[in-house]
């Protein structure tokens, strides 16, 4: 199968190491990967700001770029959710979009549900707290939302359990929002920061050394607060841990 690797624009610019780790992780599993150079932003920032008409050009560019791949894989749950759940209005019953919609996966979702990996030859000897980002958690169903009051399951935790020497800490609130919300963090700065501080405190109280998750945007938000307040904790995207990157 041929995989098209979709790298969100802000990660390409600000977190190239995470992008490389995503590529490394997939290559380590002997997956045939292509990185189409014509890819660009998925349009999520515009959607967050209510500029829906500005998304159409980007949506059509995305579909044209990735329509011929067997699978599209990205290290960002929110960007994947954008393509799956917010492009439909521009395509109606378009065959190419319908294929893209059913072929795109967040990388952990892909590893867990499609490849179904059951072992990883990596070690990460740290105490790790898992942050469940809202889009991936509820829209992609990467884990069980607590409000459903059903037995908890997490695809991210299942993957992290394959890592040697890792210690996953128990948080008081498994799926609390970090407060980022894209442009929400700009328009509602005080609320966003307060929510981020609460999320970080839960990890600190649980003695985590690392906060990990599947969305670099949420981790970026918390990392900024951590650095500003000189907190003794770091953030890492989950693909870095799964790929064997040390911190």
From TrEMBL:
GO terms for cellular component: cytosol. GO terms for molecular function: oxidoreductase activity. Residues 4-84, 128-223 form the Cysteine-rich domain. InterPro entries: Cys_rich_dom (IPR004017). Coiled coil: none annotated. It comes from the Bacteria. It holds the Pfam family CCG. PANTHER family: LACTATE UTILIZATION PROTEIN A, UNCHARACTERIZED PROTEIN YKGE. This is Fe-S oxidoreductase. It comes from Malaciobacter molluscorum LMG 25693.
């Amino acid at each position: 199968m041929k995989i098209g690797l979709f790298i969100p624009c802000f990660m390409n610019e600000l977190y190239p190491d995470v992008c490389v780790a995503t590529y490394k992780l997939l290559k380590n599993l002997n997956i045939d990967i292509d990185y189409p150079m014509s890819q660009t932003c998925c349009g999520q920032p515009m959607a967050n700001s209510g500029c829906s008409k500005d998304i159409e050009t980007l949506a059509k560019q995305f579909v044209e770029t990735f329509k011929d791949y067997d699978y599209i894989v990205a290290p960002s749950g929110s960007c994947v959710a954008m393509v799956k759940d917010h492009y439909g209005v521009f395509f109606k019953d378009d065959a190419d979009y319908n294929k893209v919609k059913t072929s795109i996966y967040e990388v952990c979702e892909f590893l867990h549900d499609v490849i179904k990996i059951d072992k990883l030859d990596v070690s990460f000897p740290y105490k790790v707290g898992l942050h469940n980002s809202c889009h991936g958690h509820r829209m992609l169903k990467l884990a069980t939302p607590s409000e459903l009051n059903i037995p908890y399951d997490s695809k991210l935790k299942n993957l992290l359990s394959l890592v040697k020497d890792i210690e996953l800490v128990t948080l008081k609130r498994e799926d609390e929002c970090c407060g980022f919300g894209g442009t929400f963090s700009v328009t509602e700065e005080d609320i966003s920061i307060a929510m981020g501080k609460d999320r970080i405190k839960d990890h600190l109280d649980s003695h985590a050394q690392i906060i990990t998750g599947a969305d670099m945007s949420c981790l970026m938000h918390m990392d900024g607060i951590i650095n500003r307040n000189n907190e003794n904790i770091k953030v890492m995207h989950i693909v870095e841990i799964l790929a064997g990157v040390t911190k």
